[in-house]
Amino acid sequence: MSLALLLFLFDFGKPDSPVLPEWTAVHPGTVATAEAAGWVDPPELTAQDYHYPRLVENASRGVSEPPPVYTDELTRDAVGGTRPARFRVPLLPGDYNLWAVAGSSVAVGGALYDFTLSVGGASTHFQMAGSRWFESRRLKFHATGPIDLLITPRSRWILSGLAIWEARQSEAVEPKLAKLEQAWRFLPDDVLAKWKQVPRRDPVAPPGFQGQPWEPLGQLSAADQRRGYLVHQRHWSENIYPDTIPYSAELNPTLRAFASLGEAEPLTFAVLPLRPLRGATVKVSDLTGPGTIPASRIDLKMVEYAWSRPNYSLLGSYLRVPDYLRPVAPQDLPAAENKRYWLTVTVPEDAPAGLYRGTATFSAAGAPAATVPIEFRVLPIRLQQNPDRVYGIYYRDPLDDAARATDPAAKEYYTQQAELQARDMVAHGTTPCVPLTAYCSVPSKPDQPITWACDWDLLTRKIDRCRRYGYQGPLVMHINTNGLYARHMGGKYPGSHLRGVQVCPPAFETELQAMVSYLEAGRQERGLPEFLYYPVDEPGTAPEQVAFMVQCLKAIRAAGARTYVTADPTHEQFEPMRPYINVWCTQPFLPDRETVAKDSAASGVEYWCYPNHINGENDHTTVLGARMTYGFGFWRSGFKVLIPWIYSSTGGHPFNNLDSSTADFFNRPGPDGTVWPVPMWEAYREGYDDYRYVYTLQQAIARHPITRQPSKADRAQSVLAAVEQAIEVKAKYKLDADCWGYREFDVYRWQLAEQILALSQRG
Amino acid sequence: MTVLPAFEDAKLWYAAECSVSNAAPPGQPELTKAIHLAIPVDHTAGEPQYPIGWPRGGIAPAPAADWSGYDWLRFRAYCTSNREKLPHGGLGLILSMPDRGTEFHLPVPLVKDGWCSVEVPIERLSNSRQIARLQFNISESQWAHGDRLDVWFADLQLVKVTAPAVLALRSLERVLSSDAGYVVLELQVAGLPPGELLPARLVARSAGKEVAAVALQVRRGLQRLTVKVPPLPPGELTLTVQLPPGQDAASTTVTITRGPFGG
């Protein structure tokens, strides 16, 4: 059935923009009349139109790749503004539904689309932080005649499409709208035809193991059948998929964990509905024992499944995986699909030690509630962090968006987002040891003189934020190597990984040294921490590329500064660079610990690691590998800093992992700049805590009085040594099969905690 | 153990861009029934896009064969070549089943002038009831013009264990808290008909003394079981799977430690 027979359909854009068939074009000049929809007293409105082809050229990589977002006649164009607006639609009296889609296909730096749509007493809110992010909303309202759709912006507003139809026609209309939404929430049909769903891998299965772990669940209990759902638990680091069948041993659990003072600890459980459930939600009680841990100290989130790619840069394959965590809210749950709830208890710094008890309660409309007991042991331990180890992370800084924003609401949003993310990093054991950029523009021709300049205000603001949240340097600093290269090489830029690069004339080195000298002078004048200069990311190993790197590194060192290189030091091709590198940052834990120690002692070189295999280079499920990398693996490696790429990576819609040339991964944007984490991010914190238990015990042993008799310290040392011995050292811990069993980590952690407690007791 | 006629009769094999015959490998004249695949690599023999064609040989039972009652396909392979070093994955095994996308692929780990042994668990085949083809082939990208590969296949057989047996057992966790509540075991069982469940018993022993015993059910093939256990005493624990009539079939050890919640 044609949509146009049932409803009002408006496609917003420029006067000459293509219009979706059967839809009516609306542009800034479309004014309302008695018979036709349009703007009422329109304020200054803008229109835009940009359509992406299905493949766009990436000159740096020399390939064609998918666009940032898939557009069509509806989403390629839009009308927007920054002041309130009113759009009138001549309706007859009746009950109506409204559907609105909003987003910008045009990239606008620092943009925030934050506005409310209201009609007939109903309203909805849009908030998109950035471009190429489309959202749709629905409203129900009653009209007594012509209606005015009110647009009230907090920042910018934008509209791509609007549909209004009689409520009784919804059954016919909704499928058509869902098809339109598919294009930005999933993939358009023509693109989807080239993708295929792939099975997920079993994380610990040996090669050739087929099918999921099997065990007949057996007869469900009468209570479970009456209730209409199962409650079960796996260790938080083990993924639960939509179709995971629980083992009978996992049913009706008691949630148990232990933690030290000030520590955050996860507890999870899952519900498997036997029939659809409406309005499912979870509440928690206080935890009571020697003291009270109030419910407000228990963060409640739920795991959302999403279509993901097997790896962030792969195209053509997708699978459904547990992806991000969002705050618990009532939700309808389909039958036979797991829903996992993620509780994080943060122990107060002054909580009395001992056993605490409480409950989590799951409820859904028309179904008996389930009470899940919680037992939580608080330990009288204050964990210490090894001061010689740093947890950093690559980062797309919202302060850049704040600087580009053109209205106060957007500036405030991005500034607040930066603060919230910094707090979130610290809460997860990561400090804002984040690579920054000191950008100096250079004229394009070598005979044009350079006046060095840098936005010191913005850079200083970023660095101040790093310091306020506990990181005092050194700071990894990108510089405009590419611009200098193009200046001396006829306007050509190096490709990705220095593809196509050639050795530059000596003037390039001279000017690079001058750039760094300028930045060093500015840094010292402002009292900023040391900069580690980062001329190129991930150079290739071809001789010309290595020779170019040597030029860059020599120039930086000649300016009296230290260098940072992201490259594998075990690759022989990089040997010419070695004398000029102060920090090797490499993906695997290689070279081995002994070589790292020897090399660092001999030359002062530092070994950092960017373990992308437990950040974006996976299918979002490498949770156990993340914990191992961040904790016992990091301890055993001898490396100094972990700095994976990246805190948050989004392209297109931040919750559609299949659009854009690369998938979204890691932390996602919640409303108002809040953070929606992922299980791997939680695993980073747990690994950080694992290492804190190790270091705290090491410190306790070191402080223990030396006696002639075998002492508690000797016992503790032997336990520590046994735990270290149990680590199967690997260069990369990614798949679950690379690590200990899920619960083994907690066994070793408890062993360390027991020894810490033993050493803290007198006698 | 079953040796199908086609496994030993080269006349029942097909070959393309190579030859197949019954012949003994060098130094093993007694193996007269070995299948000899002789592959001279000729980059001029094929089409422009596939210059050496696709040298291959195999058997295509018609109707498709039912191997579901077996546990493994086994064979040994001996090879010679004029290549100094064999390319990795130079020879592949493909087992085809009727449905699209259900082929099973395995690189044969050839040893130049030596024997290799291959064992394919039948449970790894998505449809072991309908084996339409067993084929060995090389990939043209790994062989140069003028290369030669000769492979002799011997002891090609389907094997089944006639009595239930646990061939491998391990705990997925090497250390556990005493109050863990369950253990996760991975075991490989043979000798059962497909789909049949066999009652078994998991016995936990500490210093030789039985401290816990629970009932479980096993099926044929590689499987993972989560078995509820009572609180366990700290120390080394031996977990043994017993099959009827109560015989120890396989054992593994885990270390039990005190946990934070008692025990």
SSE arrangement:
The complex is a heterodimer of chains A (763) and B (263).
Chain A lengths: L6 E6 L11 E3 L11 E2 L6 E4 L6 E3 L4 E3 L11 E5 L3 E5 L4 E9 L10 E7 L2 E7 L6 E9 L3 E7 L3 E3 L1 E6 L3 H16 L3 H4 L3 E2 L24 H6 L1 E4 L22 E6 L3 E10 L3 E8 L2 E2 L3 E2 L4 E11 L8 E11 L3 E3 L5 E8 L7 E12 L1 E13 L10 E2 L6 H7 L3 H20 L8 E2 L18 H13 L6 E4 L2 H8 L17 H20 L5 E4 L8 H16 L3 E5 L16 E4 L6 H11 L2 E4 L13 H8 L1 H6 L3 E2 L5 E2 L15 E2 L1 E2 L5 E2 L2 H25 L8 H15 L17 H17 L3
Parallel strand pairs in A: 1-2, 16-24, 18-28, 29-36, 30-31, 31-32, 32-33, 33-34, 34-35, 35-36
Antiparallel strand pairs in A: 1-15, 3-8, 4-7, 5-6, 7-14, 8-13, 9-12, 9-15, 10-11, 10-13, 17-19, 19-26, 20-25, 20-27, 21-22, 23-24, 23-26, 27-28, 37-38, 39-40
Helix pairs in contact in A: 4-5, 7-8, 8-9, 11-13, 13-14, 13-15, 14-15
Chain B lengths: L4 H4 L5 E3 L2 E4 L12 E6 L15 E4 L12 E10 L9 E6 L7 E4 L6 E8 L11 E6 L9 E12 L5 E7 L3 E3 L4 E9 L7 E9 L2 E10 L2 E8 L6 E9 L3 E11 L6
Parallel strand pairs in B: 12-18
Antiparallel strand pairs in B: 1-4, 2-3, 3-10, 4-9, 5-8, 5-10, 6-7, 6-9, 11-13, 13-16, 14-15, 14-17, 17-18
Write structural notes for this entry:
The complex is a heterodimer of chains A (763) and B (263). Chain A is of the alpha/beta class and 763 residues long. Chain A has an eight-stranded parallel sheet with strand order 29-36-35-34-33-32-31-30, with helices on one face. Chain B is mainly β and 263 residues long. Chain B folds into two domains: 5-159, Galactose-binding domain-like (Jelly Rolls, Sandwich); 165-257, Immunoglobulin-like, CATH 2.60.40.1930. In chain B, the strands form four sheets. Chain B has a five-stranded antiparallel sheet, with no helix packed on it. In chain B, a hairpin with a 7-residue loop joins strand 6 and strand 7 (104-107). At the A-B interface, helix 15 of A face strand 12 and strand 16 of B.
